[in-house]
Design a protein that fits this description.
single chain; four-stranded mixed sheet; 14 strands; globular
């Protein structure tokens, strides 16, 4: 009012009115009630970045929010923990390889499909956050940053981690380093207005140490700009579809109790509008640990349907015919009925009376066809051929052994680069794998694989019902 009276304008350009901060039960904090949270108890334990991030992502700023320690911890875990773990992963391997980003250029790198996707998503994120912050939409911007960071950690880094393992600085390894470096540094700049301290810590370690002319603080940098030349919307959409297929494939494995490390012969994908490049299909194939992928026009051969009457709709219409309807649904061509009701209705004559089914009249459930494990959503059906040959079985056991040995390396306190001597006592299929042609030595950095356990870090395992004793010893 004073500003308007004196200067004929408001004292601000934009104003966000904050909602109340309530307790964990949504009750307004009050000293009288005794539900006030001392902010220092949270700031000292989880830090100001975690508190800030919680308020950004819990709800739009003008809505009431419930503040309590567990909620802040969850926000800290979902974003700050994920961001820091991704950064720590990069630093671990970059230190081992003495990687210097100033010696390379992203433009000169031979980028993989995963690299191109990560950089496309990164630049789409920059554009989205910039546009939303210009409109003071902090909730939408912060949620998008959190979503992107989770995808980088749990999809890009996980899919690409083996690229950092080799001893040689190959073109592919350089591309992997430069892509992840670019992503992390850009994330630090994007998140700086939201979480200033973790952003500064990451930036100071990754930028001024290598680029002497760079600003001395992330808060002195310009906000990143979207590089449209790196944005590939078709690739982003294709990867979303791959992630959907992978999630369905994992669910199918879980329902059939087939371990992820057990290779399978084939993945079938059925659905409309599925147009994935060979490179994207290869990613789905590798992620689901299958030897081949096949697209299908229809899911009819992958699943079977079970039909039951929906009593609340069929009862009022055909109450006295419900017995006949049940018998019909148990013996009919279920695929034909489902196909018809999906398009509109299905008609059949029972006992001299015409019965008309719509989708709302039926309880439709699906089961995997014999020899398959399937899972579906509204758009896609995926099915795994779960018939396991002896060759596939042995390959699965090899992967289980590698996993167990890597666990033992970690438990024994070995460094990532330490080379070992592996010894074993085994029988059956496990013995066949350990004595046959395999990649175990290269995967676990073993100089030798010898029969008989004498010393070192020793542990007994159960692999597919077979007892195996393994020993790892640092060279």
């Amino acid at each position: 009012a004073i500003s308007t009276l004196l200067f004929d304008k408001a004292p601000f350009k934009n104003c966000i009115v904050l909602g109340h901060v309530n307790d964990k039960n949504g009750i307004k904090m009050s000293k009288h009630i005794g539900n006030v949270v001392d902010p220092w108890s949270v700031l000292d334990k989880q830090g100001s970045d975690a508190v800030r991030w919680y308020f950004y992502t819990s709800s739009a700023p003008w809505l009431p929010s419930s503040f309590y320690e567990e909620a802040v911890s969850e926000a800290q875990r979902k974003y700050l923990g994920t961001l820091w773990n991704t950064y720590a992963f990069f630093v671990l391997y970059a230190d081992i390889d003495k990687f210097d980003p100033s010696k390379y250029s992203l433009k000169d790198c031979k980028l993989s499909l995963m690299d191109k996707w990560a950089l496309s998503k990164l630049n789409s994120l920059v554009k989205f956050v910039d546009e939303n912050l210009n409109e003071y939409k902090t909730f939408e911007a912060s949620r998008k940053i959190e979503e992107f960071t989770d995808e980088i950690s749990n999809w890009y880094v996980r899919r690409c981690r083996e690229r950092y393992w080799g001893s040689d600085m190959s073109e592919d390894k350089i591309a992997a380093y430069m892509t992840l470096y670019t992503v992390i540094v850009t994330l630090a700049k994007i998140t700086a207005p939201f979480t200033p301290f973790i952003a500064e810590s990451i930036y100071l370690n990754l930028v001024p140490n290598f680029f002497k002319d760079a600003p001395i603080s992330v808060h002195l940098c310009s906000f990143p700009e979207c590089d449209d030349s790196l944005v590939d919307e078709k690739l982003e959409e294709g990867m979303e579809l791959v992630l959907e297929i992978v999630n369905l494939g994992r669910s199918a494995r879980n329902t059939s109790n087939v371990k992820n490390r057990q290779p399978l012969s084939k993945l079938y994908i059925a659905g409309s509008g599925i147009d994935l490049s060979e490179g994207l299909l290869d990613i789905a194939k590798e992620e689901l640990n299958v030897k081949a992928v096949e697209n299908m026009d229809s899911s009819d051969s992958l699943i079977t349907y079970k039909l039951k009457p929906q009593l609340k709709t069929l009862g009022p219409k055909y109450g006295r015919k419900l017995g006949d309807i049940r018998k019909f649904l148990e013996t009919c061509n279920t695929k034909e009925v489902v196909s018809a009701v999906e398009k509109g209705e299905y008609k059949v004559e029972l006992g001299g009376e015409e019965i008309v089914f719509t989708k709302d009249d039926l309880l439709i459930s699906t089961e995997s066809a014999s020899g398959f494990a399937s899972c579906a959503d509204d758009k896609i059906t995926v099915a795994l051929d779960i018939n396991i040959t002896q060759e596939l079985l042995l390959e699965g056991i090899e992967r289980e052994l590698v996993s167990k040995i890597q666990t033992m390396r970690k438990e024994a306190g070995f460094q990532v680069t330490d080379r070992i001597i592996l010894s074993y006592v085994a029988e059956g299929n496990c013995l066949a794998v350990l004595t046959g042609k395999n990649d175990i030595a290269s995967d676990v950095l073993a100089e030798e694989i010898i029969s008989g356990v004498t010393d070192g870090y020793i542990k007994e395992w159960d692999i597919n019902g077979e007892k195996v004793t393994l020993s790892v010893k640092k060279v």
